[in-house]
């Protein structure tokens, strides 16, 4: 297997369990793997949650770690994918002084060119939201930094895979088996 | 159970009744068939103890002298009986004292249900008296755990706990129950758990994989099997024996696999690993097909991975997909229950014998016998050896005893020289190497198999780690036999200091108390021997005793255990001296 360190997106379909995040992070921690980003949300299936975790590891590590996840009782399925195998995005928000909108007309161009969106404006500040690839977000942050950013926050990657996940099939099979 | 009584139990169990959470705990245990548990009371678990008091004709609680003792006793019980061991403790320190036993059970795949009391749920997170986040603490060392804060959730949580602990690859689970859940009420109805949708305990063996394994084995000139505890946990001893005998494969075992096949079986070539036998360690690097069955390629087994069986095709039978390719890259993986997989394998194998190959093991054994074994079990020097004590025990028990060993030199000697004839006879802390394991585990083992002779073999160091459990032996009168091999050193560490730290014996020499007097203080029959002439009679007297018995054997202070694969060395660089 390839020994090259790459960015892998690990997707977990899980039961909603309070302790699970602890188990998930312990698996990374024990192996000294840094979590680049972690997002949890409802999945396409009612009562099933989805973790999207980005880590920089080798494929051999990814394969092993996915098996460790599947071993956890409350993990339904675990997968790993390369960036090419997923459609992914990140989003972020900027809080910026409203006065700058008028004092620095350039900002308006930056907003337009970056395909970002103004969420709210009031007398003191306005909030800008942008989603896209990391490098786009980074370049927007650099551009705006020149004028001063009051707050910046970026959310973890969310990703869907190009191939099918087949989790529903698995849950159906369980239900049929137990009825 | 016949169907009539079965229906009746179901009827009783499914009749709803309004009871307290703590009564539900006890009734759930009884419904799971638990008749014994080990524990220690305290504030946050007192309501459950009150119910245990009321149900004492149906379920027996053994008061150990420390919660660690309770966990290890439950482990000993589970290991010998194949049933789930149950340990109970209060919140805070009671719960944290269980943790070593839980970690031990996790790494050695022992089914354990631990029940801990917890502070009232409204106090959670407030640093209340004896509040500790035991669910958080135990997460990395449990197969599953949960906290229950409502009485109504107790039966379901316990049903799930038992199901998860014993199914698939077994392991410890912990259920933390807040005090309000214990005192609250519920409509009790117990339904055993039959499945958890996110959990596949036993993956189905894929016949194509079995065929691929059979093809490799049939074509092999120098096949070698290394089996582990997966054979015992999967109750696959007979299937393994049939496979070994039909295909004529020399077969070795890991420390936890010991006793699945009798020691004296002609194809049993001994133990692998750091202090395993010379032949199987050396020839691991000469076999052409290595068949691993229910073992996990622990580093104490493989030595340096880069030079472990590199010449061989590797077949790995295991129930846990996470073990495949974890440490050693496999050519064929057969994932599934060991009993089922081996039963499928058997008819596909060609009947063979590998006489010349087997002879290579015998030749190396002869070398090991001359250089090591002879001196260990038939010593001529003055001081007593651990090995000759084992030989005496073998003779007296005719190999029928379950040997419960602690951790250190005596453990390696016990596993190397015990003459196992019956499966589930080697109870030891393999993966975690927990000193202090043996005394409480022996108590649990004897209670789990009252008809078996249970002999604990313990070092003078490890004995003092849970020596308080003599109190449990005294109180319960459980007739375990305790042998302390006293070398007045933390022997295994001293051996490393001698070999790798120029004999700088930093904090390994021990000034010990009078162990015989201590045992007698607990009214346990006790004897000390330090001369060879006294040994045979002393062992005879101990085994003949109907009661618990303590035997201290003063052995040579600075003996070493060989063979040895030094840390980081290849298995084929195993040393004989
Ligand atoms: C709880 C624990 N602490 C420390 C160790 C490290 N250790 C491994 S073997 C050993 C020495 C054991 O000495 P003793 O019990 O006297 O047995 P011997 O080796 O002399 O037979 C030690 C300290 C351990 N395994 N477990």
UniProtKB/TrEMBL annotation, chain A:
**InterPro entries per record:** Acetalactate_synth_ssu, Acetolactate_synth/TF_NikR_C, Acetolactate_synth_ssu_C, ACT-like_dom_sf, ACT_dom, AHAS_ACT, AHAS_small-like_ACT
Q: In which pathway does it act?
A: Amino-acid biosynthesis; L-isoleucine biosynthesis; L-isoleucine from 2-oxobutanoate: step 1/4; Amino-acid biosynthesis; L-valine biosynthesis; L-valine from pyruvate: step 1/4
* A biological-process GO annotation: L-valine biosynthetic process
CDD domains reported in the protein's UniProt record? ACT_AHAS (cd04878)
Q: Which Gene3D superfamilies match?
A: 3.30.70.260, ACT-like. Chain A, domain 2
What Gene Ontology molecular-function terms does this entry list? acetolactate synthase activity; acetolactate synthase regulator activity
According to UniProt, the reaction catalysed is:
2 pyruvate + H(+) = (2S)-2-acetolactate + CO2
The UniProt record lists the keyword Amino-acid biosynthesis: yes
Q: Superkingdom of the source?
A: Bacteria
Sorted alphabetically, the Gene Ontology cellular component annotations on this record are:
cytosol
**How would you classify this enzyme at the top EC level?**
transferase
Q: How does it assemble?
A: Dimer of large and small chains.
Q: What does this protein do?
A: Catalyzes the conversion of 2 pyruvate molecules into acetolactate in the first common step of the biosynthetic pathway of the branched-amino acids such as leucine, isoleucine, and valine.
How is this protein named in the record?
Answer: Acetolactate synthase small subunit
Give the species. Answer: Aestuariibaculum marinum
UniProtKB/TrEMBL annotation, chain B:
Enumerate the spans annotated as Thiamine pyrophosphate enzyme N-terminal TPP-binding domain: 20-135
Per UniProt, residues of the Thiamine pyrophosphate enzyme central domain are 210-345
Name any GO cellular component annotation.
acetolactate synthase complex
According to UniProt, the reaction catalysed is: 2 pyruvate + H(+) = (2S)-2-acetolactate + CO2
Q: What is its EC number?
A: 2.2.1.6
Per the record, the pathway is: Amino-acid biosynthesis; L-valine biosynthesis; L-valine from pyruvate: step 1/4; Amino-acid biosynthesis; L-isoleucine biosynthesis; L-isoleucine from 2-oxobutanoate: step 1/4
Q: Which UniProt keywords apply?
A: Amino-acid biosynthesis, Branched-chain amino acid biosynthesis, Magnesium, Metal-binding, Thiamine pyrophosphate, Transferase
Instruction: Tell me how the cofactor is bound.
Output: Binds 1 thiamine pyrophosphate per subunit. Binds 1 Mg(2+) ion per subunit.
Report the cofactors: thiamine diphosphate; Mg(2+)
Per UniProt, residues of the Thiamine pyrophosphate enzyme TPP-binding domain are 406-553
Q: Which GO terms describe its biological process?
A: isoleucine biosynthetic process; L-valine biosynthetic process
Entries under InterPro entries matching the protein: Acetolactate_synth_lsu, AHAS_TPP, DHS-like_NAD/FAD-binding_dom, THDP-binding, Thiamin_PyroP_enz_cen_dom, Thiamin_PyroP_enz_TPP-bd_dom, TPP-bd_CS, TPP_enz
One term of GO molecular function: magnesium ion binding
UniProt similarity note? Belongs to the TPP enzyme family.
NCBIfam families hit by this protein: acolac_lg
Stated name of the protein: Acetolactate synthase
- In which organism is this protein found? Aestuariibaculum marinum
- Which lineage is the organism of this entry classified under, starting from the top rank? Bacteria, Pseudomonadati, Bacteroidota, Flavobacteriia, Flavobacteriales
Gene expressing this chain: ilvB
